[in-house]
Design brief:
heterotrimer; A mainly alpha (328); B alpha/beta (379); C mainly alpha (284); A: 328 residues; two-stranded antiparallel sheet; 15 helices; disordered C terminus; C: 284 residues; mainly alpha; two-stranded antiparallel ribbon; 11 helices
């Protein structure tokens, strides 16, 4: 059982979480914003796992989060389940769906897989808004109860950032585990992985399912926090935003999605509002893609080298994996 | 004697206000509307009218104390709506919020209104927002006629033509679905049965199949529950193309200038329910609002401006009713519940009470007919 | 049977628009290995501009606007390619950013109005089924464009270069073919075709500022049915999707009709074994 010292990403995010929640606690608007940002970070992290580990560029994480949210809503509103139990359902249900899809499409090119996930996400969205009896149809479900003792925005803030730390820990463990190493090999030479005896489709699908479970748990928290969920709450736009945040932050890097989410959210808050928002959002994305294609955090190793530091961050950077000597 | 005292007091108050002293009396009102996204079609006129009317009220000195508006965009998204409402209440200390712009967003913001004790005045027809079962019921008010009232009025008009079998075309969202469900519920009492329903998403590129299905069902009349004018115009075109000749009645969602202008003259006679008739046949109050909009360089679009200003006038009436007392969210809520028959630009008599948070009813609606790219009010 | 035929006819008319949206998808995928998310936005832009400027001049301006936007995307593509991005997804994402920007620009500049134009008020009757001349024009244009594309690809030098670039970009470059320029040109073609589709929609069903992403997705669905890398089958793919949607609208519920393009994508992808290039999770 290695200590935290060999898990730099978890340490960093733990420190960030504590500092940021303490800061956000000073103002109700910041607290509220930080909870929502936390939800998006979770969804972006799940996109990062799916892409960075399984190579599946997922445009359906929003739909998985929506399933998680609706699962939470229906379990607590209709079946009156106790608060923590619905987290299980919210995580498992999307995972099952994701596993199923992944088994079907893992043989395709990355672009085709991405579009398959987009199609799946859209189908889920359409289904959710038509199942009136269960999901409340287009109106959605209001009055979702809270999570037991968690009854103030600050407590939700602490909860979501604790969840983020746990997820980063799991991500880091995954990367350093045999599974993570196997995924690494798959990413670089599938045939070699198969020759090694790795069951490639099963492993990739498991990684995708894991990411879906993470997105589902983000949806669970969202539903309880806002206490309302509708087809518009977590939809294709959320999936695409999560994807942008991941790519902007650096998809191959564990903390990349986190950086991307925080950066883009800040950007969006300070733009001249209303109709022009989309123009700046799209333009900013293009700029970032041109100037920093490996993501914002992808610039970090280059900057570190520039300033003489020799340690690379231990993480799933593709570059690091390709150059074995930098892996330590 | 009392009169003299109150005269002196109001003179003092006026002096305080006009001296520009930063009185604790000025109140902030949040305006959280959909200024981007699909509901922007209504949100933008709502905001424009609120701002134009506010200017006029200030200029005329009709306000007994300072009212400041803070405007936010909820992007037709429930998450954004909650964020903006939180900002308006916490940062700007708003004592009431006009908005959010859509039913779903109001449902999302309801728990916030309850927790922070600030009333929401929603310009939306979605039934669920004033459902008594909502825990946040005491804090949400509706400043437009509800969807149920709308559907009832237009179906009653349809019944006059002795139609027995009706077909419904609805858009795939909350507004469309609610209309269809109500039509199925209310129709039989009026002697009409919904025999076929077809739907389409906002961006459908071809509606001829849907129109064909309604035609094949042999309907006597067609009910359109649509609020996206391009969708409505598409359907009308498709109906003409496939030979669906049954008379069409549409709900207030399409009572918009962009619909009237984009649909050709070959649908003259289309009945459109509208909340007042601001752009084409205004009542006295509506004409006044139209003038204000023109002065602000805006063209009246439909009824968005009316429901937006309904919210504003409710707020103003509530603020005025509280005189010089300290105003909080709770006091605003109590004041609104006591309002009945106050001035607004829209038709009809607005009335709220503790038991009824739906302020506007049938008397604010009119049946219009589309002729020559305009909506003519039917008497 | 008659009812069924009528739905099929309606579907064929509508499908030609999907075919035109699918063509740029397929062409670009063949030559550059990526897709252009902004095709729907080009269509919307052309329709918006053609609404403001009346008549044939409006159509010309609309197409010009669409091509200009596509040129911007092409430029972005070239810049990104120059920075050495190996990931095709990045180009697709950049095009998504442009699509979002264009849609927002249209909302800002043109407002929330509907973009629709009346075309013909008379209708022709084909065996008792009323069809609009506009629908026939749409189909005719689709066929014409496909024909021209066939001639271009198989009978001209440019076409030969495009096919070479598609088959083997490295080899083509070594042979002196300006691959990057061809890819840029393909983006421009995407603008033209997308713009044309937009004009066709303008004169048929009409659209508004929310339409861009769903048009792109419909185009992709149509492109993928018969093989995304073969542009000439796009029209047929579009018609197939149009017919499927019409039949779904006629016989099933709104929910199923809405799902048609996506189910197409899912079914085709899970049944196929596209082996063109790397598989998901493979070495770049």
């Amino acid at each position: 059982m290695r200590g935290l010292a060999s898990r730099p990403n978890t340490m960093i995010v733990l420190g960030l979480a504590i500092a940021s929640v303490a800061l956000a606690a000073r103002d109700p608007v910041w607290t509220d914003t930080w909870v929502i940002v936390g939800v998006y970070v979770l969804i972006a992290l799940s996109t990062g796992i799916s892409y960075g580990q399984a190579g599946i560029l997922s445009m359906s994480q929003g739909a998985f989060a929506a399933i998680g949210g609706y699962a939470a809503a229906v379990s607590t509103l209709r079946f009156k389940l106790p608060p923590g139990v619905d987290l299980l359902i919210a995580a498992v249900l999307p995972a099952l769906l994701a596993y199923g899809l992944a088994r079907l499409v893992t043989r395709l090119t990355p672009l085709a897989t991405a579009l398959a996930t987009l199609a799946l996400g859209s189908v889920i969205e359409i289904a959710l808004r038509n199942m009136d009896d269960i999901t409340g149809g287009y109106i959605g479900l209001a009055g979702i109860p809270g999570i037991g003792m968690i009854d103030s925005p600050l407590k939700y803030c602490v909860l979501v950032w604790a969840m983020i730390c746990v997820c980063v820990l799991m991500y880091e463990n995954l990367v350093n585990s045999p599974f993570g190493r196997a995924l690494n090999v798959i990413r670089h030479d599938r045939m070699r992985a198969q020759a090694d005896g790795v069951n490639v489709p099963q492993l990739l699908s498991a990684a995708f399912a894991f990411s879906a479970a993470m997105a589902g748990s983000a949806g669970w928290l969202y539903a309880h926090y806002i206490s309302y969920i509708s087809p518009n709450s977590l939809d294709t736009h959320t999936s695409i935003s999560a994807l942008l945040m991941t790519v902007v932050g650096g998809s191959g890097i564990i903390l990349g999605p986190l950086a991307g989410t925080v950066f883009l959210d800040v950007l969006v808050r300070h733009l001249p509002a209303q109709e022009l928002q989309g123009m700046f959002y799209g333009g900013a994305l293009i700029l970032i893609l041109i100037l920093a294609p490996t993501g914002l955090l992808g610039l970090v190793p280059a900057l570190l080298v520039k300033f003489g530091a020799n340690r690379g961050l231990r993480g799933a950077t593709k570059a690091a994996a390709v150059k074995p000597e930098a892996a330590q | 004697m009392r009169r003299l005292v109150s005269l002196v007091l109001s003179a003092v108050a006026a002096a305080m206000l006009s001296s520009g002293a930063l009185s604790a009396e000025a109140v902030k009102i949040g305006v959280v509307l959909s200024l981007s996204g699909p509901a922007a079609v209504f949100g933008i006129p709502e905001r424009d009218a609120i701002q134009a009317a506010m200017e006029k009220l200030k200029a005329d000195g009709k306000l007994k104390r300072g009212i400041e508006l803070v405007v936010y965009d909820d992007k037709t998204n429930p998450t954004e709506a909650t964020r903006m409402v939180t900002q308006a209440i916490n940062n700007d200390k708003a004592v009431a919020i006009i908005g959010p712009g859509t039913g779903g967003n109001i449902l999302a913001a309801g728990p916030l209104a309850l927790r922070m004790q600030v009333p929401l005045l929603g310009p939306a027809g979605t039934m669920a927002i004033t459902d008594r079962k909502n825990e946040f019921y005491p804090w949400v008010f509706r400043v437009a006629p509800s969807d149920r009232v709308d559907v009832k009025v237009i179906l009653e008009d349809m019944a006059k033509s002795k139609a027995k079998k009706i077909g419904v075309f609805f858009q795939e969202d909350a507004y469309g679905k609610t209309g269809v469900d109500f039509a199925k519920e209310i129709g039989p009492a009026l002697g009409m049965e919904v025999v076929e329903t077809v739907s389409a998403p906002y961006a459908a590129t071809d509606l001829t199949a849907q129109a064909t299905r309604l035609r094949n069902a042999g309907v006597d009349a067609v009910f359109l529950q649509v609020s996206i004018s391009s969708l409505g115009a598409s359907f009308v075109k498709a109906a003409k193309q496939v030979g669906l000749t049954a008379p069409a009645y549409t709900n207030a969602g399409l009572a918009q200038r962009s619909f009237a202008e984009s649909v050709g003259s070959d649908v003259d006679g289309l009945r459109v329910l509208s909340i007042g008739n601001l752009p084409y046949d205004p009542s006295e109050g509506e004409a006044e609002l139209a003038k204000l909009l023109k002065q602000a360089g805006k063209v009246p679009q439909g009824w968005g401006e009316l429901v937006g200003t309904n919210g504003l006038m409710t707020v103003v009436a509530a603020v005025n009713a509280q005189g010089d007392k300290e105003i909080t969210g709770t006091s605003m809520r109590d004041a609104i519940e006591g309002l009945c028959g106050y001035q607004a630009f829209a038709r009809g008599k607005p009335c709220f009470s503790k038991d009824s948070h739906d302020g506007w009813a049938e008397d604010s609606l009119v049946i219009t007919e589309l002729r020559n790219k305009e909506l003519r009010t039917m008497r | 049977m008659y009812v069924l035929t009528e739905y099929v006819v309606r579907g064929v008319q509508a499908g030609s628009i999907y075919g035109l949206l699918a063509l740029p998808m397929s062409l670009l995928f063949a030559t550059a290995g990526t897709i252009d998310f902004a095709v729907g936005a080009y269509a919307l832009l052309a329709a918006a501009v053609a609404t403001i400027v009346a008549g044939p001049l409006g159509i010309a301006f609309g197409l010009a606007a669409a091509i200009t936007a596509a040129a911007a995307m092409g430029g972005i593509f070239l810049i990104l390619a120059r920075t050495g991005t190996k990931d095709h997804i990045v180009f697709a994402l950049a095009s998504f950013g442009l699509a979002v920007a264009i849609a927002s620009y249209i909302l800002w500049q043109f407002g929330t109005q509907a973009f629709v134009r009346a075309s013909f008020s008379r209708f022709w009757s084909l065996g008792g089924i009323r069809i609009s001349p506009q629908g026939v024009i749409n189909l005719g244009l689709g066929v014409l464009v496909t024909l021209l594309l066939y001639l271009l690809l198989y009978w001209s030098d440019l076409g030969r270069m495009m096919r070479a670039a598609a088959a083997n970009p490295r080899g083509a470059e070594l042979a002196g073919i300006p691959v990057a320029r061809i890819q840029f040109g393909t983006y421009l073609a995407g603008g033209l075709l997308g713009g044309l589709a937009g004009i066709m929609i303008l004169y048929s069903a009409g659209l508004d500022f929310t339409a861009s992403l769903s048009l792109t997705l419909s185009g992709f669905g149509a492109a993928i049915i018969f093989g995304i890398a073969s542009p000439l089958r796009c029209l047929v793919g579009g018609i197939a999707m149009g017919v499927a949607e019409a039949l779904a609208a006629g016989y099933t519920s709104g929910m199923v009709t809405a799902m048609v393009p996506f189910l197409f994508v899912l079914i085709v992808l899970s049944l196929s074994n596209i082996r063109g290039g790397a598989m998901a999770g493979d070495r770049p």
